[in-house]
Write a structure and sequence with these properties.
This protein is α+β, with helices and mostly antiparallel strands and 281 residues long. It has six helices and 16 strands. The strands form four sheets. It has a five-stranded antiparallel β-sheet, with no helix packed on it. Strands 13-12-11-9-14 form a five-stranded antiparallel β-sheet, with helices on one face. The radius of gyration is 19 Å and the shape is globular.
C-alpha cells in the first residue's frame, strides 16, 4: 500500500478584469477497488460556492460561478489517497466472446466509437491489425498495441497542444501523455477492443522517499476491456500500479479535462498548472 498526498494548483491569469466566470473542475479522485480517498478538498479563489456531483462517467465534478470582478482564478485541489498494487488477471476471452460482450453493455459500445481526438491514422491502424494477427487473444493484442504506441511516440512536452489530435502526434512522432493515450485508445478501438481514456496522477519516482514533495503533473493512461478493465501506462511503458492515482475516465481528454469554463471579460488568458506529490507511507 502506498499513501500519496497530491496538491494540484491550476487556474487562469486574465489580461484584464473579468466580471464573471462559470466553471467545472474534475480534480478530486474517488474511492474504488484498489484506491481509497482519505481526504480531498477543492479551494477556489476568489471564494465561490461549489456544487458537487458525479458525472455520467463516474467522475467527481465541482461546479462553481465567480460573480465578482477578478483578474485571476486559482483552484487548489488537495487529496490524500491510499493506493494498492493493481492486479492484472490473465483472461483468455476470445474475439467472438469479446464482440458479444461488447454488444450487450453500453459502457463497452461507447468505448468503441472514435472521437475527433482519438481517430488513428491509417498507418497505426495497419500496425494494430498486424499486432492483433500475431497475438493469441484480445488481451495479448491490446498489450502489444499499447506498447507499440509508447515505443513509437517520444514524450516531448511542448510538442503538441491541448487541442492536438492523435493523428497530429503520430505525424510529429512526439507528444505528451494525453497524445500517447489518445493514440493507444484509438488503435485499440480500431481493432474492436473497447478502450477508455483515464486521467489522474503519477508519482514520478518509483522508490520515492517518504515525506519528500516532488514536482509532478496531471497524467493520462489507457484502460481496455478483455474480460475485465485493465490499465496500462503507454507513456512510461509500465503497468498501472500503486503510483497511479485515478481521477476519472471517458472517451477522450474532453470528458475529463481538469478545468473548463467560460467567462465575461478580455479575450486573453493564461493557464497555469503546478502539481506536487508526496509519498506519506
Amino acid at each position: 500500500m502506498t499513501r500519496l498526498r497530491i496538491r494540484h494548483e491550476t487556474g487562469f491569469r486574465y489580461e484584464g478584469e473579468v466580471t464573471a466566470s462559470y466553471n467545472e473542475a474534475r480534480m478530486l479522485p474517488a474511492s474504488f477497488d484498489g484506491q481509497l480517498v482519505l481526504h480531498s478538498q477543492l479551494d477556489v479563489q476568489p471564494t465561490a460556492g461549489q456544487r458537487g456531483y458525479v458525472d455520467y462517467w463516474g467522475t467527481r465534478v465541482s461546479s462553481f460561478d465567480v460573480l465578482q470582478p477578478h483578474t485571476r482564478l486559482t483552484l487548489t485541489a488537495t487529496s490524500v489517497v491510499e493506493v494498492r498494487p493493481r492486479e492484472h488477471p490473465v483472461h483468455r476471452l476470445g474475439w467472438e466472446a469479446l464482440a458479444d460482450e461488447a454488444e450487450r453493455r453500453t459502457e463497452f459500445v461507447e468505448q468503441l466509437a472514435q472521437t475527433r481526438r482519438t481517430e488513428p491514422p491509417a498507418e497505426l491502424v495497419e500496425l494494430a491489425r498486424e499486432a492483433l494477427a500475431a497475438s493469441d487473444s484480445p488481451c495479448d493484442a491490446a498489450l502489444a498495441i499499447a506498447r507499440l504506441v509508447g515505443e513509437r511516440i517520444a514524450y516531448l512536452p511542448g510538442s503538441t497542444s491541448v487541442t492536438s489530435t492523435a493523428a497530429d502526434a503520430w505525424a510529429a512522432g512526439s507528444g505528451v501523455c494525453q497524445d500517447i493515450t489518445h493514440l493507444a485508445v484509438g488503435a485499440l478501438r480500431s481493432v474492436g477492443i473497447p478502450a477508455r481514456y483515464v486521467s489522474g496522477y503519477l508519482h514520478p519516482v518509483p522508490e520515492a522517499e517518504i515525506g519528500v514533495a516532488v514536482e509532478g503533473e496531471s497524467h493520462a493512461w489507457v484502460e481496455w476491456f478483455c474480460g475485465s478493465w485493465r490499465g496500462f501506462d503507454p507513456t512510461n511503458l509500465i503497468e498501472v500500479g500503486d503510483r497511479h492515482v485515478r481521477v476519472g475516465h471517458g472517451r477522450d481528454y474532453g470528458d475529463v479535462a481538469p478545468l473548463r469554463g467560460v467567462y465575461a471579460g478580455p479575450a486573453g488568458s493564461e493557464l497555469f498548472v503546478r502539481v506536487q506529490i508526496t509519498r506519506e507511507a
